[in-house]
Write a structure and sequence with these properties.
Two copies of one chain form a homodimer. With 622 residues, chain A is an alpha/beta fold. Chain A folds into five domains: 92 residues, Ubiquitin-like (UB roll) (Roll); 66 residues, Ubiquitin-like (UB roll), CATH 3.10.20; 139 residues, Nucleotidyltransferase, domain 5; 155 residues, Nucleotidyltransferase, domain 5, CATH 3.30.420; 100 residues, no CATH class. Helices cover 28% and strands 24% of the residues of chain A. The first copy, chain A, has 16 helices and 28 strands. In chain A, the strands form seven sheets. In chain A, strands 13-12-11-14-16-15 form a six-stranded mixed β-sheet, sandwiched between helices. In chain A, a hairpin with a 3-residue loop joins strand 11 and strand 12. Chain A is elongated and about 100 Å long. The relative contact order of chain A is 0.10. Chains A and B meet through helix 3, helix 4 and strand 15 of A and helix 4, helix 5 and strand 15 of B.
Chain lengths: 622, 622
């Protein structure tokens, strides 16, 4: 048998052994370097240029034609043509590598991401097999790919795809594993979807894995809300009802599949070309999604089934994508603090903050992470769904018809999404209303809506007339009369709505205070407060601060970072570097379990009180 | 964060980094050493003894109680109790390793195999999670296992299994991958099945993966025979009929599942405790089994889809085992020479033969491997199903009622399987009959059955009376009259049966001759001829040699090696060393494609002629 010799690739220094006659392209692929071959390896485009630094590699006519005598004499060769005849050192310029023309995506937060996804497509023109060559179809293909396993599904399509397309196919590879083979050149059709799986809201983003571009977005209410609006009620269902887990999982998967259908349709993309799906959600949502019983999250000491990221196949969940697509479920931190928080950390680079930084993801389950003094502490609080409009009598989601903003101008003036008649009040409107009523003196610091006669004398009459006594003697605030509302019914802000808001804000604020206390920090020490969550972006900072949800720091230090969970999930989809970062960073976050904190109940009770005044100054127009 | 330090394990020298307080058992598991803990890690049984060679590791009370002051002073510790406080070198005696009490299985051929299967079960008593310990269920379990991935199915059962069984579970691990978690201690229930998938016959063996013992055997006719009795007809079906591949795959899988049911029932074993299934068959059988189109095997240059071994999950094929069981399909050599030949090579250690050695696996597809002069050559010949009783007018398989032996003692005397009235003729009976008729001069060297008047005068009358003229003027040999046969019909050996036998023997002999010629060897140079295949074992060597199927060498050099494909498959199931050997050895076998050999047709024509005489001497009673 022939003797193999060593080929060293520069600048990395990685080496492989090769037989005489091996094409440089193949040897490089075995070393993990995928060289681009836009012309299909025909020696005509010149894009696969390499430099022979030492050793022999006799030039072919095609190389002399494509590169000229001089460059060939200098050692330039075409990787698709040059055949190795002995030991050699070969330099591969970055510009010859597949994916060299990387697109840079400016993500909505966390800075740009280089597009280096785990999923890569390689167009490979093998040509027909030769008589007397003992290699199988798979061996010939694998010689042009990085080392790794081969999925049965890819093997099953291989012989047919090769022979239907003149032995030129596109290989879909994930971390070296061959997951699909497609006839002809489909290398431009490569997509992934990033999902943020919230207790109340699901958001999915279809991404082009070549360019990094967002192609379509879908969002909808998590259908699990019909089984209970917070994670505790869903865990309870799993604990008490046989088949409860399966029903919850089925509900979210059905919605996810509808969203996959929707984004593929919107972007006119085949679902069979979706090769990776990334999910980020809190621990309960992620475990239910995976079909892993979250019951142990409902009993002390609140143990998640896993913390490291979970990998599976789309077919394991029955997703409407290529069945062998990779599914990546984010690593989790502990307790209820899950993958959405990890995604938020990588989206905001919280761990790299120089000054103490706080990440607050406001949702039904509120997550808070404090990064300071070389540590990261994370906790979750049951804020409840008030911010998403639930448990508020006239509450609704931030959809057309929702009062999303309330200001005072002699009267209460309201802004309605879609400029239609108001149908209800969404989270931001609720916060605005409470903050303004507090400023007006209509709300006292215990959160009580005062009677007109108790209110300050300066209160404008139009507002005074909005205070309505209910059956129990408690007052409500009329937001819109029957003729002004979309429903023909009056829209009122009730006393108990204020209580819900106090509970939600108090929980968040107590969590923040506990974490600050653990690191001996005061609110004023915070260099930044990052507000995340789809809802967080629409909050008026000064109003959130006025009602005590956020600590009293200047608005300039309070920043909106968008749906950080979604952005983080998208980053992990677009870049293996970001994914690895997420897979690791959770280990350096310490989980703080507030349910066992003796201080929490006291902090919570204190934080329920609305601040006397807001001393941190104006935030300007918001 | 705390600083990790290095722990070195002797005698291997492998090392890992560990945090202060890490239990030795955990650190060892991360280094890949699974230490036995029969007492569940309670420090009472003393079976997990290790020796601290350097570094500090303060003894616990439990260790002093279990080991005594003196041994503790010498550095003896219990891996389940001892906690690391700094860098250390720790020796793990073989006797402390899990699986130390290895069973040795004496396989039917190829020498003993140490039982070191890929599948390992580990009983792990974790105890309940502790308050304030941030680890998930999975992390706590994985710390006690070698590094690797976790299947979703194992993760799904983990939280429930832990909590149903007082946090003591059995982990099923394959090459570090966690594939199942079972409540309580199920570590003694660990099974695998090895299958030989022949064109005509399927054989399955259920094996205990702890003891290495055979527990049950099942065999049946490959139901694909109803679509055609050789591989070419099955390939043709795939090429011409839409859904042909699916029908063939469905047929063999249905039979495999029935055999799985059968062996589990016979051995009173739960199919859920079958964690690995190994398949060996020729390239066509293996590709059809996997659902990989074999069409390219039906056209020049006869390219298999894969040569390296294929790994999948039982659920990919719908096997009646634990759904996540590992399925291993043997590596293939090329053309029609597949995994059964690789299995035969590892079962016989053919590559280690000192003198030239020939492995002949006689089946519908006959495979021949010649090992000599540091090379291995392999080829396949279409022997046809004559040896399995098909295409023979009164042919049948070697089952009760089959004439399996024919001798001459004044007349033709026949031995019938089961001592019942004969119903037909199986392969060995056919060879015996032809050899004896040749010796008697009733058959000439062209294979023609002579008329009574052409036969030698010495031919005993009872035999002469058996020569019957048929409609076309050709003669047949009466084996049993209507009153002697099970069917009430006469049993005859026809002229065309002899032609089928000549074709089968000629193909095998021509293949042998071509391989010998390629290495410039003569039959007499062969140190051994190994006969494999369920059928091969029952052949009378002198008769096979007399009709020219085997070369004229002394019987002492012709050895029966049993169903080598089955044995090889079983070896790969019982030992990862054997599996790795099989995964590699195919690369050193050169495939010889007889269809493109210019010599084959001439050799084949010559080999169809029956030898004038057998010069190689007697084989004794067979």
């Amino acid at each position: 048998m022939s003797h193999e010799f060593r080929i060293v690739f520069e600048p990395s220094g990685r080496s492989v052994f090769a037989l005489p006659g091996t094409v440089v392209l193949e040897a490089a692929a075995r070393a993990g370097f995928i060289i681009q071959t836009p012309c299909g390896g025909n020696g005509t485009c010149g894009k696969c240029l390499v430099n022979v630094r030492s050793g022999k590699c006799p030039p072919t006519d095609a190389e002399i034609r494509a590169l000229g005598v001089e460059r060939v004499a200098e050692g330039c060769r075409l990787a698709c043509q040059a055949r190795l005849t002995g030991p050699a050192t070969i330099e591969i310029p970055d510009s010859s590598l597949f994916g060299a023309q990387q697109q840079i995506l400016t993500a909505d937060s966390g800075g740009p991401v280089a597009v280096v996804p785990r999923v890569r497509k390689h167009y490979i023109a093998l040509g027909p097999p030769k008589m007397g060559e003992p290699l199988s179809d798979l061996e010939r293909l694998r010689r042009r790919l990085p080392e790794g396993a081969t999925r049965l599904a890819a093997l099953r399509t291989l012989p047919g795809a090769l022979r239907r397309s003149g032995f030129a196919v596109t290989a879909v590879e994930v971390d070296g594993e061959l997951i699909a083979v497609e006839a002809g050149d489909t290398s431009s059709q490569c997509y992934g979807v990033a999902f943020d799986i919230g207790s109340t809201t699901l958001v999915g983003t279809l991404v082009n894995l070549i360019t990094g571009a967002d192609l379509a977005l879908a969002s909808r209410v998590n259908p699990q809300t019909s089984f209970g609006d917070d994670v505790v009620s869903r865990i309870q269902l799993c604990r008490t009802e046989p088949g409860g887990l399966a029903r919850l999982q089925g509900a979210v998967l059905e919605a996810v599949n509808k969203m996959l259908d929707e984004v593929a349709r919107k972007a006119d993309v085949s679902r069979q070309n979706i090769y990776e799906v990334v999910f980020a959600g809190n621990t309960t949502m992620q475990q239910i999604l995976c079909g892993v019983d979250p019951s142990a999250l409902g009993e002390i000491p609140f143990i998640p089934a896993f913390r490291n990221a979970v990998e599976m196949r789309a077919s394991d969940l029955g997703l409407h994508t290529y069945p062998e697509a990779c599914v990546h479920v984010f690593a989790q931190i502990g307790g209820f603090v899950g993958g959405d928080t990890v995604a938020g950390i990588i989206a905001t680079r919280l761990d790299e903050a120089v000054e103490p930084a706080l990440l607050v993801d406001i949702g039904t389950n509120g997550e808070i992470v404090l990064a300071a003094k070389g540590r990261m502490l994370a906790t979750s609080v049951a804020a409840g769904p008030a911010f998403e409009g639930a448990r508020i009598v006239n509450g609704m989601r931030a959809a057309p018809g929702a009062i999303e903003k309330v200001i005072v101008n002699g009267d209460l003036k309201m802004n309605v999404i879609g400029n239609v008649k108001p149908a209800g009040l969404c989270g931001t409107g609720l916060i605005d209303a409470a903050a303004e009523l507090l400023r007006l003196g209509v709300l006292d610091t215990t959160g009580r809506i005062l009677a007109p006669e108790e209110a300050p004398a300066s209160l404008p009459d139009p507002i005074k007339r909005r205070l309505i006594r209910g059956h129990g003697g408690e007052f409500s605030v009329l937001l819109a009369g029957p003729s002004e509302s979309a429903t023909g019914q009056p829209l009122l802000l009730y006393q108990r709505d204020i209580r819900e808001l106090q509970l939600a804000c108090g929980a968040i604020r107590a969590g923040i205070n506990i974490l600050l206390g653990m690191l001996n920090l005061k609110p004023g020490d915070l260099g930044s407060v990052l507000l995340a969550g789809a809802f967080g972006n629409f909050i008026r900072r000064s109003n959130a601060r006025r009602i005590g949800m956020l600590p009293a720091i200047p608005c300039s230090r309070i920043r909106f970072v968008g749906n950080a969970a979604s952005f983080g999930a998208k980053r992990a989809l677009l870049s293996r570097v970001e994914k690895d970062y997420a897979d690791r960073v959770f280990l350096s976050v310490e989980h703080v379990d507030l349910s066992i904190s003796p201080d929490f109940q006291m902090e919570f009770a204190a934080a329920m009180m609305l601040p006397e005044a807001d001393e941190a100054g104006d935030c300007g127009a918001e």
